[in-house]
């Protein structure tokens, strides 16, 4: 379901891609350690964004968005490891990595406004 909020939509779409990546890594590559890590961090981005939207205060909102940013950065790291260890091909990596970096940029923009 689409919302009118770009970060909600993009983080959810990204989480769905991460779930597919997790299934691929487990079923095709028999990789169970990093895949579990990326599943947790990659789906946590959207969960924290959703929590932020329903935050009780401005500080709660920014706290959850900062957590989402940290999770996106962690996911970026796991993606790099999966690519550099040759679990995922360059074409697959480039596409999902670009999406991850886009989420990071959006979340950085949102969290920067906290101090304004």
Question: Can you characterise this structure?
Answer:
The protein is built from four helices and no strands. The protein is mainly alpha-helical and 116 residues long. It has a single domain (6-115), classed as 23S rRNA-intervening sequence (de novo design (two linked rop proteins)).
List descriptors.
116 residues, mainly alpha, de novo design (two linked rop proteins), 4 helices, elongated
Terminal-residue CA separation? 32 Å
Name the CATH class: Mainly Alpha
In terms of quaternary structure, what is this? Answer: single chain
> Structural class given helices, strands, pairing?
mainly alpha
Share of residues in strands: under 5%
Q: What is the string of helix and strand elements?
A: HHHH
CATH homologous superfamily descriptor: 23S rRNA-intervening sequence
Number of structural domains? 1
Radius of gyration: 14 Å
Sum this structure up briefly:
The protein has a single domain, classed as de novo design (two linked rop proteins) (Up-down Bundle). The chain is built from 4 helices and no strands. The protein has helices at 6-27, 34-53, 58-84, 90-112.
Can you lay out the helices and strands and say which pair or pack?
Layout: H1 6-27, H2 34-53, H3 58-84, H4 90-112
